[in-house]
Design goal:
The chain has 240 residues and is an alpha/beta fold. The chain contains 9 helices and 8 strands. The protein folds into 2 domains: 199 residues, Aldolase class I (TIM Barrel), CATH 3.20.20; 31 residues. Helix 1 packs across helix 2. It binds N-acetylmannosamine-6-phosphate. Keywords: Carbohydrate metabolism, Isomerase.
Length: 240
């Protein structure tokens, strides 16, 4: 099947569940991907051979595939090895996402992985955590750069929200499309990322991990209730 690159700017929905999530498994992730397509997403990002294969069959959107896998003694877990790239391509992904941070021997290994994907006729999305890594990834010939790993390497800013500064710092500096990804929880943040210079926005947890969305509501409500109860106690004490 011909590969589908990303075309029009817009929202990519990351449909990924961890093994401990109630929605773990391809049947649930396919439903998430179909819901994202129905809602107007322009691409799907997903993890693992079975999910990639099932989602690619079910939706007509470009699919960005990755394999998350922990290897003892290594910090690289997004598509670490050539065997992962092969599995992603066999599963039918249009674009392969891989870690291109400045860690371990990633630039040596990364070049071979990029070449392999290109020879197979597919494209590469580099997951990076800093502007230097984004520029290095572009020099290495990737097709898209994504801010996925900002906040997940020890030397990138650790923050609650998306790394809009990283996006702003790359404005006008890349010739390949820039993807804003990581901790985007609202439509306003997605628009801010696009206004700041991103071409695409990936949203995962806020759409496809309902237990974490629920927890966010629960925590905010608990904060509110504890504050109002403290206020009520203060008023009571004053009155007494
Ligand atoms: C850091 C890492 O491993 N990110 C992974 C990359 O594929 C996924 O776990 C994220 O869900 C994805 O990047 C979307 O981000 P968010 O879920 O924050 O919208």
């Amino acid at each position: 099947m011909a590969i589908q690159p990303l075309t029009t700017q817009g929202l990519i929905v990351s449909c990924q569940a961890a093994p401990e999530d109630p929605l773990y498994g391809p049947e649930f992730m396919v439903r998430m991907a179909l819901a994202a397509e129905q809602g107007g997403a322009i691409g799907i990002r997903c993890n693992g051979r079975d999910d990639i294969e099932a989602i690619k069959r079910a939706v007509s959107l470009p699919v960005i595939g990755l394999i998350k896998r922990e290897i003892a003694g290594s910090d690289i877990y997004i598509t670490p090895e050539l065997e992962d790239v092969r599995a992603i391509l066999e599963a039918g992904a249009d674009i392969v996402a891989l870690d291109l941070t400045n860690r371990e021997d990633r630039y040596t290994k990364g070049k071979a992985l990029i070449d392999y994907v290109h020879k197979a006729g597919s494209r590469v999305m580099a997951d990076i955590s800093t502007a230097e890594e984004a520029l290095q990834a572009e020099r290495m010939g990737v097709d898209y750069v994504s801010t996925t790993l900002s906040g997940y390497t020890p030397y990138s800013p650790q923050q609650e929200g998306p790394d809009l500064e990283l996006i702003a710092s790359l404005r006008g500096k890349l010739s390949v499309p820039l993807v804003a990804e990581g901790r985007i929880w609202s439509a306003e943040e997605a628009v801010a990322a696009l206004a700041g210079g991103a071409d695409y926005v990936v949203v995962g947890t806020a759409i496809t991990r309902p237990q974490l969305v629920t927890q966010r509501f629960v925590n905010k409500i608990a904060d509110f209730l504890s504050q109002t109860q403290t206020q009520a106690r203060l008023i009571e004490n004053k009155g007494g």
